[in-house]
Amino acid sequence: MKRLLGILTALLLITACDDGDLTVDTIDFSEVNAQKCSSKDVIYKVKDSEMLILAIPASNFVNDETPEGDPIEVTIGSNVEVIYRQYNGDTSADNICPTVPSATPNLLEEWNAVAGTVQITTTAVKTVNATTGITQITGYKHFIVFKDITFQKPNGTQVYETYTFGNYTTSVSPLAFGFDEEAEKSTCDNRIFNFSGSESFVLDLADYSTLLQNEVTTSPRTALISATNKVTYRLFNGTINDAYFCAATTPSTPILAQEWTANDGVADVSGIIEVSTTTFGSGFQHTIHLKKVTMTKGNSSFYLGDDYLYGSVITP
Fold it and tell me: Which of the four pLDDT bands, split at 50, 70 and 90, describes residue 11?
């Protein structure tokens, strides 16, 4: 009987000592989506009473794909913080995002990363038009991994050689490509323009005189996109027109926001400029199609579809 009472007493003492203490050996947020504070550069994950925080300047998330095997690397330090927290109740954005965070639930334990590297691998998020085959970039997915990260805990340190934070997605406005079918020849050279508000789609063709002959075609004339037959899409922060491109000195406004160039063509495969000519009153109408064209900016690209109608040019 005395022995039994001794065991029960020891169990009660152990329970009393453990009450309120927190022991965490691993942290796992693999099934949790990342969120971002709207008013500060903080990305976080919440799982019940746990929170994993990455405070990092937004400039590290570039809207461009990273080359394969070459992620962006940022050292954990004064400008980049990784923090793990455990609370005594379910936590939320209110505990991290406001200027004055909520005081409840109470914070029980916090780990701060004191060394390591943040690796960011970025890929474009695309949608495909099932009818035209045209792809649009709607965002960029940033896959975040911590390498050789050391957490300072209240009772020591914890090191992960590789810890996967997961995906964080930024959204972008898809390019409108709001062009109509009426293109026009430049007033200052042989370039062909199609404008739509702040968008321009420019053909700068060394083969202009061959492609746009004033003679009715029985089969389309073709040329490959190349360093001399250039196809360029530009997006500006204001309305654009012929005068901008014909100015002797590039105007300071509107400001160029994005520029995408067509990949060089491959004979009978891709990157083909196709022109069909018909009569139009006393002149001629040249209808231009771009076949299997891919547009590229930096490491990102999108497909313009199997057959994109660029527009028609009227010549006297």
Answer: very low
Phi, psi values for residue 157, rounded to 5°: -125, 160
Residue carrying the six token digits 């940033």:
142
Torsion of CA 209, 214, 220, 226, to 10 degrees: 10
111 and 82 in contact (C-beta within 8 Å)?
no
The mean predicted confidence, pLDDT, of the chain is 92
228: Cβ–Cβ under 8 A, 6 or more apart, which residues? 205, 206, 207
Q: Across-strand partners of 46? A: 51
CA-to-CA distance for 277 and 280, rounded, in angstroms? 9
Whether 231 and 203 have beta carbons less than 8 Å apart is answered as: yes
Report the Cα 115 to chain-centroid distance in Å.
28
Where are the extended beta strands (E) located within 237-282?
256-262, 272-280
pLDDT value at 273 more than 80: yes
What are the structure tokens assigned to 263, written together?
């990949």
Residue with tokens 């995002």: 97
The pLDDT of residue 25 is 61
Residue 14: which residues within 8 A CB-CB, separation 6 or more?
none
Is omega for the bond preceding 98 within 30 degrees of 0, making it cis? Answer: no
| SS3 annotation, 42-75 | EEEEEECCEEEEEECCHHHCCCCCCCCCCCEEEE
SS3 110: strand
As given in the structure block, the two tokens for residue 184 are 């026009």
Beta-carbon-side half-sphere exposure of residue 118 (alpha carbons within 13 Å): 27
The backbone region for 3, taken as left when phi is positive above 0, alpha when psi lies in -120 to 50, beta otherwise, is: alpha
Q: What angle do CA 18, 24, 26 make, to 5 degrees?
A: 155
How confident is the model over 93-117, as pLDDT tens digits?
999 999 999 999 999 999 999 999 9
Predicted confidence band at 2 (pLDDT cuts at 50, 70, 90)?
very low
**Cβ(282)–Cβ(232) under 8 Å?**
no
